[in-house]
Each structure stands twice: as structure tokens, then as C-alpha cells.
Amino acid sequence: MKRRDFLRQGLGITSGLMAATQAPFAFAKSDASGFSNSISQRNDFNLPAIEEGQTVRGKQVFKLTLQQGQTRILADTTTETIGINQNFLAPVLRMKKGQTVKMEVTNKLDEIAALHWHGMVLPATEDGGPHQAIEPNTTWIAEWKVLNEPSTLFYHSHTHNQTGQQVWRGLGGQMQIVDEDRDADLGIPHQYGIDDYPVILMDRAFEETGEFYYNNSRMDKMQGMHGDVMLVNGVPNSVLKPKKTLVRLRLHNASNARFYHLEFSDNRPFQLIATDGGLLEKPTKLRQIRLAPAERAEILVDLSDRKPITLKSIKGYGNLSRGMMGGNNASHLDQDFDLLHLDSSQSEQSSAFKRTQLVTFPDWSKVQVAKTRLMKLEMQMGPRMMFGSGGFTINGQAMDMNVINEVTHANTFEIWELQNPSTMHHPFHIHNTQFRVLDRDGKAPYPWEHGFKDTVTVHSKETVRILFPTGPYKNNNTPYMYHCHILEHEDAGMMGQFTVV
Ligand code: C2O
Ligand code: CU
Ligand code: CU
């Protein structure tokens, strides 16, 4: 029996294998009453290390080593993992707009790898996509000037056909472009680990042996890999005891395939202040937010009532049984989970957040649109899907390293019309840009999609239009990628290449 099957049957109880060893953490289910059950089985919040680089001749130099090791993720066993400067996952890379950063990425794994800076505007040769593969025991250097606005980005493996398994094993982390002076002016919490916390969400499945379960069966490929152990910054069932009562949480869906519908256990409101590309014009009061794989959202949560609360994912948004996805095979794609407990009983009182205006967006209402393109995200069902290797395409073509699918022009704007005739939701991502979501089937985007984005969900049977700048960098030969960010779909071919010339 695979451990994930066991876990699926054994949620919230200790029996069988688990009882035979020792009770691991409790998979505390719905817990509206607070911290009543099994406090002792909860883990401390894991605050990732920060890496800010060394200043060398005016550049910020980051030394990043891809390495492997063993990690105690579950209480009763260790797991073979990979990571960046650590055995599992990665430090938070912090940088500032205007800095020139130099990434020295050394691959100490015994397999080929690539490391991509998701959300960043940068030359195609520095992008870290599948064309910048790093052979074992070699170093790849990427250098660029940070043009992006302060924001929460994502760096992760982007190895040709191997992205899903490498991210699953640990090759990913958060990047932050920070501006502490600006945040101080706006009254936004910005002290890392005091009132500003990364909350990196991922789910994992385990074998009975304690190793990660990662299977490229056709069903897993089709659904995308899901697990039933929820991790925040690599740790299950953890409790954050923030130092202050007004906290900024940088929510970051780093899962391979899971969609989250997030809310707090008491349904309290929070302020959304930033999306993938940075601050919103105005904070938006919400009680729930949805994050597809690779999406980020910065929220401010007021904990001054000091009630224990839990950040939860509520079922209803997963890639659940539609059409042929039916049966209990798909039920694990869409479940309720507790993600992170917040205990503010000892937190120092912060002053309330009052700003109603944050930044002003550039006016894109009158920009010249150089080109409108249609992107059709398809999963071909039938024999080719079930028994062949293909089936995942954009505009009928599967990813081919030797084919440039689209050619765009630098310093222009384009509208892409994303159509999803398939039975699953696909989070669509474009490299080297931050876009605006124009509409969903002609209607307004969600309230949490009004800012700059680099990833947007295209629901089954839906059409989403986005508007974006192609950026300043030209290169005839080296392409950027656009793709579904369900990593198993990306690996299976739902990806294309474009150049900016
Ligand atoms: Cu987050 Cu092409 O990737
Ligand atoms: Cu990307
Ligand atoms: Cu997809």
C-alpha cells in the first residue's frame, strides 16, 4: 500500500503503521474551536532563511547550490529531498528594484537541472527555462537588472520534462523584491519574521517507506500530482506565533497541481494588498481568495483580538470530477484542509492598517495592441491521451524545444485570448511579463485579480483575456515559455515558446 492511500484513509487518526511507530502530527481537521486537540503534535512555523547576496563591484551576487539530502518532514521518518543551499526547498531570496543581481547556480545533483525566476522581466538567456539547462557539477550564471516592482516571486526548477518531479522533491522557493522605506511610508508590515511572513503552500504524498510518492502514471499526469500532506514552508501542521498583531502573509501556491480556496476558520476579513506582480492600487477587503498553482497574494491580517485561527483550504475549487475525471480517484483533488494555525496570544499590539490608496498603476486603457493571439489549451482525450504520450497541447501543438511557436516584438502590448475547451482548469503563465486580466468570458475578473499577474486560471470551458507588455529585451534565438502551471501538464507538453524580437 502506498502511504498516500494509507494517509487518505487514516486522516485524523493514528492507527496501523502510524500507531506502530509513534503518533506523527495530527491532521487536525476542522478546528473552529481553536487549539483544543493535540497541541503537542503541532510543529513550529518554519521561517525560511533569507539570502540577500553579497555586494561585489556594484552587483548583488547570490551563490545557489542545488543539492540533495534527507529531511524529516514527517515525524516518524526521513525523506530523500533536494533543495537550494539546503536539503529541502530553498531560502527566500531578497533583492531590490534597480539592483543588478548575479545568480551563480551550481548543480550538485546527479541529474540535469534548470532554475527559473518566475515573474521576473529579464533577458531570455537569463530566464532559467529549459534552454538554460545546468549539467551536474557545473555552474550557470544569470545576471540581470531588477526592473520589476516590489513583489513576491517564485524561483523553481524548469528542467525539460522534469519540472514536476524536481519541484515536488524540493527545487523551489520564494523571491521577494522589497522596498522597506516605501512599505514604512504606507504602514505596511515589512519586517521579515516579525510581521512579514512567507506562507509557501504545497501538498505532498508519501510512500509507506517515507519517500515521496511521485508517479508518472497517466492518471497522475492528467490530474497533476496531488498529495494529502499539506506543508507550509516545508512543514506540516504548523503554528505561527507572529511577533505583532498586524501581519503580512505572502501566500504563495507552490504546489504542483493543487488549487486552494483559502479562508480563515472564523471567516474573518483580511486586506489583499498585492498580487503576483506587486501592490494593488487599493487594498481589497476579502474573506476568501483562490490561488491556483504559482499564484501569489499578499494579505494583511488583523489578529488584535488574539483569537486562535486557522488558515484553511475549503473544497470547491479543486480540479474535481468533471466529465471523465469522475469517481473517487478524483476526490483527493478537492478536499478541506487546515494549512496553518495562527496563535497571536503573545503578539505585540500593532497599530491598525488604515491606508486606502497604495500605488497608481500605469494607464493601459489606451495602449496600442500590436497583436491579439488565441491560445487554446487542450487535453486530447481518447486513445492518444490514455495510451500514448501526448495529448496536452496549446493550439494543437505539444512543446517542442526546436519550435518557436510565436514571435512578438519588444516594447509592444499584446492581448492573448486563453481558451480552455478541456475538462480541467489550467493556470496559464507567461514568462518575462506581468499582465492584467481583462475579462473572464466577457465578465469582470475576480476581486483578487485586479492587479498585476503572471499566472491566471482558465477554468474549464472558459475564455480569459489578458493584456501585457512584451518588455524591452530582444533575442532572435532564445525563447521564453508560456504554459500551464500544473507542472505535470507542462511536462506533458502544454507549453509553447515565444521570442521577443
Ligand atoms: Cu513558474 Cu515557466 O514557470
Ligand atoms: Cu515563469
Ligand atoms: Cu493544465
Distance between the termini: 53 Å
pLDDT averaged over residues: 90
Q: Specify the overall morphology.
A: globular
Helix content: under 10%
Notes on the protein architecture:
- This protein is mostly beta strands and 501 residues long.
- It has 3 domains: 169 residues, Cupredoxins -  blue copper proteins (Immunoglobulin-like); 127 residues, Cupredoxins -  blue copper proteins (Immunoglobulin-like), CATH 2.60.40.420; 132 residues, Cupredoxins -  blue copper proteins (Immunoglobulin-like, Sandwich).
- Helices cover 9% and strands 38% of the residues.
- The protein has a 7-stranded mixed sheet, with no helix packed on it. Strands 1-15-23-22-17-20 form a 6-stranded mixed sheet, with no helix packed on it.
- The longest helix has 7 residues.
- It starts with a helix and ends with a strand.
- 47% of the residues are buried.
- About 9% of the residues have low confidence.
- The structure holds CU-O-CU linkage (C2O) and copper (II) ion (CU) (2 copies).
- One copper (II) ion binds next to loops.
